Amino acid sequence: MRYTCDKYYICDNGVAIPQLCPDGTVFHFPIQNCILINGADCGGRPLLQESIKKNQCLKKTGLFPHEDPTQCNKYYQCLDGRQTLITCPEMLLFDRSRGVCDYADLADTSSCILEPSPVVCPSRDEESFSSSLDITKRLLPHPSDCRRFFFCETMIPRPLICEEHLAFDLETLSCIDKSQVQRWSRVQQKQHQMSPSILKVLKNCNDCIRKP
């Protein structure tokens, strides 16, 4: 169909027989079959069949965001109107456009409310986000967790985590054994200016062992 993305024709002996994809899928020309609408390119065919919403399934089949906008890492997998709640792997969020889990700086999170990040990436007004940007300004340590750190590819920090028993080392900008970590936080250089309560938090961060 010229303007309908989920309809197509089967030609039999010169006779065009109209067909309709299952609700939530669209006809994909390259493979001559119906696929999930997430990530599909309908081009100039914006129309879709009318759907009947059931539970959290906006269509009978497909991948749909959680109804709670703060649950950015959860989504529903719907098959013939039956829904299954799925949680993305740690640190990934649901991208509603592509129907996949991805990092916050790569995912379409327009329908959810992101938790504030504990770090701020360099401003585009201050630094050029080119491939030559100093890597020390792209990699930022988590302020209170030795294993976690952030990568700034855009203005949205991408959360990353070292494997168990490893910690992020700010000197080498890599994950190394906790016992070998020289400095996991930039604030360590100013420990003598901090209050005892702050120092206690730093010294007990994941029981990291840091050299003086």
Structure description:
The protein has helices spanning 135-138, 196-203, and strands at 7-12, 15-20, 25-28, 33-36, 62-65, 74-79, 82-87, 93-95, 100-102, 139-141, 148-151, 158-161, 166-169, 174-177. The chain is mainly β. The chain folds into three domains: 1-50, no CATH class; 52-114, Beta Complex (Antimicrobial Protein, Tachycitin, Chain A), CATH 2.170.140.10; 135-207, Antimicrobial Protein, Tachycitin, Chain A (Beta Complex). Strand 6 and strand 7 form a beta hairpin.
In short:
This protein is mostly beta strands and about 210 residues long.
Q: What's the overall geometry? A: elongated
Order of helices and strands: EEEEEEEEEHEEEEEH
Alpha-beta content class: mainly beta
CATH architecture of the largest domain: Beta Complex
Provide the residue-averaged pLDDT: 80
Give the % helix: under 10%
Largest sheet: 3 strands, antiparallel
Number of domains: 3
InterPro entries: Chitin-bd_dom, Chitin-bd_dom_sf, Chitin_bind-dev_reg
Pfam family, one: CBM_14
Protein name: Chitin-binding type-2 domain-containing protein
Keywords: Chitin-binding, Disulfide bond, Glycoprotein, Repeat, Signal
Annotate the secondary structure layout:
Layout: E1 7-12, E2 15-20, E3 25-28, E4 33-36, E5 62-65, E6 74-79, E7 82-87, E8 93-95, E9 100-102, H1 135-138, E10 139-141, E11 148-151, E12 158-161, E13 166-169, E14 174-177, H2 196-203
Antiparallel strand pairs: 1-2, 3-4, 5-6, 6-7, 8-9, 10-11, 11-12, 13-14
